[in-house]
Amino acid sequence: MVKDSNSFPETFLWGGALAANQVEGGYLEGGKGLTTVDLMPTGEERQTISKGYISNFTPKQDVYYPSHEAVDFYHRFEEDIALFAEMGFKSLRLSIAWSRIFPTGEEDQPNEVGLQFYDQVFDELLKYNIEPVVTLCHFDVPVFLVEKYGSWKSREMVNLFEKYAKTVFERYKNKVKYWMTFNEINMLLHRPYMGAGITLVGENQINQVLYQAAHHQLVASALAVKAGHEINPDFKIGCMLAAGATYPYTSNPDDYWKAMEKDRESFFFIDVQSRGEYPGYARRFFRDEGLDILMEPGDVDILKEGTVDYIGFSYYSSRCTSTDPEVLKGAISGNIFGSIKNPYTKASQWGWTIDPKGLRITANQLWDRYQKPLFVVENGLGAVDVPEEDGTINDDYRIEYLREHFIEMKEAIQDGVDIIGYTSWGPIDIVSASTGEMKKRYGYIYVDRDNAGNGTMERRRKKSFYWYKDVIRSNGEKL
């Protein structure tokens, strides 16, 4: 049936999105094991490590690791969830820290203290009728598995992940309905260690390593989906893509083809997770690059039987590319995905392209390609917020950014795209995944914490807090 309403669906899941490694803190508390992000400091070294160039697997002395305390959600979740409820959240996307459940990843029995922590978090959410949307693996691999197996380079990870997934599915089968397997699964190609715990020290055939690891993740995702549906047929289990349409810089057909190839680098993962098989263009890429992706008997059937129910995606910016060497000299560094500066768009303080219409374009691309419900599970503006003398934070720039994106999201729904919800990134200020900074703030709630870890951790409502509350209360009518 053609949708003729100008409104968001009545069941639309407004909310916010968090990741355990950026919000919880509670470093090694409650039996938690060391996780990959616990070895990522702030500053330039963070960038080097995130790309896979790390050989030390214990925290260094006299180095600040922001994840160790983050913003202390581990001890303050009741206070924070109460603030989300005050805004009227319908959903909260968050992740489970794998190493809280299996500290090394190899234990026969899960860590009961870790399981109880998430019981408490989910119970608190449900008390306020907030739907948990849970990511199984959000840039979060037990360090022990990186040291012993090389993380997702090894097939051993598939069974270990399946065991972890089955454990939490069974434990929370009556508390959580919406799940996602891997956060921004395509990040593996761009930040291998951050995205998947992949180290590249001493590796010569980088693409071979990355795409073999990708195969292991895709099989693990499919097995998790299959297991989840067996444990609770009402589960809705999705995949998650770091999305953003790539525009050709000119109408030159070569530019158009390159833009399509760039999009396919990301679509590859979702093609497999949504359709259950490797697309032809990927098989050609493997042949052309001389890659030999090892597959076990039965993998083809596993992928086919474990397709996802919906497509979760993040959208921060569009991208632009060219085949002209002179144009490529003008590439900008904003965001993890490289791009040429688009003369028709603005940029954030961190150089990320601001392109609200790109959200509508990206949503239509994904809907046309997969015909499965979409969930916008990350979107937002990282900016420096400066409190006024009276303590208020007037973040009108964030309100403007979100308003423009909501208008385009509503247009996508009018286009016939089935979008089930929207969880903005970082409803409370958290540690930046890319830089480790606190000054790069996304939240509706200010946290008194600086880049060096100083501050009281006091929570304070920003102007956008009250604006988003009105958006949710009016179901997107009051923007």
Automatic annotation (TrEMBL):
Lineage top rank: taxon: Bacteria
Swiss-Prot/TrEMBL GO biological process terms: carbohydrate catabolic process
MF terms (GO), sorted A to Z: 6-phospho-beta-glucosidase activity
GO cellular component entries: cytosol
Active site: 378 (nucleophile)
UniProt keyword terms in alphabetical order: Glycosidase, Hydrolase
The keyword Nucleotidyltransferase is assigned to this record: no
Keyword Hydrolase belongs to the record: yes
InterPro entries tied to this protein: GH (IPR017853), GH_1_N_CS (IPR033132), Glyco_hydro_1 (IPR001360), Glyco_hydro_1_AS (IPR018120)
UniProt cross-references to Gene3D superfamilies, sorted A to Z: Glycosidases
Pfam family, one: Glyco_hydro_1
EC number annotated for this UniProt entry: 3.2.1.86
Matches recorded under PANTHER family: 6-PHOSPHO-BETA-GLUCOSIDASE ASCB-RELATED, GLYCOSYL HYDROLASE
Similarity field: Belongs to the glycosyl hydrolase 1 family.
The protein's name: 6-phospho-beta-glucosidase
Source species of the chain: Radiobacillus deserti
